[in-house]
Amino acid sequence: MLKTLSLPTHQKTEIIDITPQVQAIVTESGIQDGVAIIYVPHTTAAVLIQENADPAVHTDLLNTLDRLVPQDLPYLHQTVNKNAPSHIKAALIGPSKTVFICNGQIQLGRYQFIYICEFDGPRSRQVWVRVMQDAA
Amino acid sequence: MLKTLSLPTHQKTEIIDITPQVQAIVTESGIQDGVAIIYVPHTTAAVLIQENADPAVHTDLLNTLDRLVPQDLPYLHQTVNKNAPSHIKAALIGPSKTVFICNGQIQLGRYQFIYICEFDGPRSRQVWVRVMQDAA
Amino acid sequence: MLKTLSLPTHQKTEIIDITPQVQAIVTESGIQDGVAIIYVPHTTAAVLIQENADPAVHTDLLNTLDRLVPQDLPYLHQTVNKNAPSHIKAALIGPSKTVFICNGQIQLGRYQFIYICEFDGPRSRQVWVRVMQDAA
Q1: Mutate which of A57, A88, A115 to test chain C, going by most C C-beta atoms within 10 A?
Q2: Number of continuous H segments (helices) and E segments (strands) in chain B
Q3: Buried b vs exposed e over A91-128: b needs ≥16 C-beta within 10 Å?
Q4: Cβ C40 vs Cβ C107: under 8 Å
Q5: Which of A40, A43, A84 sits opposite B60 (nearest CB)?
Q6: Which phi-psi region, left, alpha or beta, contains residue A133 (left: φ > 0; alpha: ψ -120 to 50)?
Q7: Residue C81's pLDDT is what?
Q8: What is the pTM of this model?
């Protein structure tokens, strides 16, 4: 089962919790055991699984990516929104993550949530989620 | 179904489109709904999903990785081809990616293609692709 | 089938081979063709597939991550163990990897093993492994 989430982003860079929406898709699927794969069909956004307790971790991550891939270097990709660093950050974090499902529930560590990383917002973004049953 | 692509690379670092070959494997599998997992059995290459419109993005990504993991630091891994940075770049981008299949077609965002990142070429490389049916 | 490995780590940062344990889980599952997904339910650890021949590559990777995400920057996430860099390194390497299974055997490249990256040890860590059968 493949479902699409649509969500607006509000800042140039931003980390947005989508855990409840992913769980709702898993619940709707009726699948008890398997995996959910979360995928963004974008090249300047990414899917992240990270700390859910202290939002300062998100700021530290975004600041570190800004330091490693600064906005003002002479990149070759010259677009109106100067988003070469956005592409590179998205490549480093990656466009998808996989989580496990047991008894219809997403299995995450105690401090893990599922997030979308916006690296070139604000925009309207899509997130695709496929829930796959464990056939065994 | 597990299939192997073999491809030559031509430069030390290079980003090579394999989207048509992955689609051909999916088509050959006959699977209509599921996922394709693309995996490189190498430690100095990676699989990337990124921008397909402007090849300057690829150059920006390779240049950024060269800046972050420069060739001339005193790495401990001393081989003839001095490829410690190649391993580290491969670890940062990762050895595999997963894409969705609907109606027999790979589902990608408008600006996404599937690429192999060569970080220690030129070489002959393998890419493994497993197409898995959604059992639900 | 979802199984949990528990393992102690012994250093602040460390790369630990778990390939034999993952193969044992695959063997126990009886699944001949499919995938094994290896996942850490932690936000300061990661799963890595990399070089198995020269442990110097692991040291080079850990040193490079320390250089890119140094311990002593003014991060906002202030905990007793000052682990903001640990979270960021974990985000860069990622919490899971997928490997293929053929004839009951994990398929890896000649120089690939499966590793846990500890970025904030020593601790007791869990690794979750789901083996999924290829239904096709």
Answers
A1: A57
A2: 3, 8
A3: bbbbbbbbbbbeeeebbbbebbbbbbbbbbbeeebebb
A4: no
A5: A84
A6: beta
A7: 79
A8: 0.98
CA distance A135 to chain C (A): 6
Tens of pLDDT along A41-99?
999 999 999 999 999 999 999 999 999 999 999 999 988 778 999 999 999 999 999 99
Write out the DSSP string of A49-109: EEESS-THHHHHHHHHHHHHS-TTS--S---TT--HHHHHHHHHH-SEEEEEEETTEEE--
pLDDT computed for residue B136 by the predictor: 67
List the domains of chain B with CATH numbers: 2-133 (2.60.120.460)
Task: Report residue C120 as tokens.
Answer: 């904030």
Neighbouring chains to A with at least 3 Cβ pairs closer than 8 Å: B, C
Q: Read off the amino acid at residue C136.
A: A
For residue range B61-100, list pLDDT tens digits in order.
Answer: 999 999 999 999 999 998 877 899 999 999 999 999 999 9
DSSP-derived letter for residue B58 is H
Query: Average pLDDT in the C59-71 region?
Result: 98
- Tokens for C45? 């650890």
Question: What residues contact B105, with CB distance under 8 A and at least 6 apart?
Answer: B23, B26
ipTM: 0.97
